[in-house]
Design goal:
Pfam families: DUF6431. The protein is α+β, with helices and mostly antiparallel strands and 177 residues long. It has 6 helices and 3 strands, in the order H-E-E-E-H-H-H-H-H. It binds zinc ion.
């Protein structure tokens, strides 16, 4: 829901920008009422560093307050997935393996995830593909007229990482993981 800023692919980039160019996170409009004037409203801390030391946690996320309706919203960089704990790169790996025909069992084994998680992500991708593909194709005609899930995502992930595709869908007001 317009929560993602289409920049800052790594946590290190995000941590630098949130100090040096905090204005790059400010939304142009309030996501609740559409008003055009939002004030910076501090930060909240989020566990976003999944590396073994997790030394970057808690990662600050910028918050904004609407001068009209008084509600707050926050903006995430590309490197933080809004609603899943796992990193985008791992999700992209899992989905790519499935797209290339690996079995659910092998994908779970290779990635160290449970079969339930792999099954849930895969089902989500297949169920959402008609809507996602329609919107992404209207923005990127080069994604072509591929009709099935496999060829669409192979074309899409060859053009952009999963996090960027999701950020474009977020801009179209879809709820992304
Ligand atoms: Zn508002």
């Amino acid at each position: 829901m317009r929560r993602i800023v289409r920049a800052f692919l790594s946590l290190e980039q995000h941590l630098r920008s949130i100090v040096s160019t905090p204005q790059s996170y400010r939304p142009s409009h309030c996501p609740h009422c559409g008003f055009g004037g939002l004030w910076a409203h501090g930060f909240y801390g989020r566990k976003a560093d999944r590396s073994s030391g997790a030394r970057l946690n808690p990662v600050p996320v910028a918050r904004f307050c609407c001068q009209s309706c008084g509600r707050t919203c926050s903006r995430l960089p590309l490197c933080i997935c809004p609603r899943r704990w796992y990193a985008w790169a791992l999700q992209q790996l899992v989905l790519s393996l499935m797209l290339f025909g690996l079995s659910l069992r092998s994908t779970a084994k290779v990635t160290g995830l449970s079969r339930n998680t792999v099954r849930r992500w895969w089902r989500w991708l297949r169920e959402r593909t008609p809507v996602f593909a329609f919107l992404l194709r209207s923005r990127f005609p080069e994604l072509g007229r591929t009709t099935d899930t496999m060829s669409f995502w192979q074309a899409c992930l060859a053009c952009m990482p999963l996090c960027m595709a999701m950020a474009w869908l977020d801009l179209d007001d879809l709820s992304v993981p």
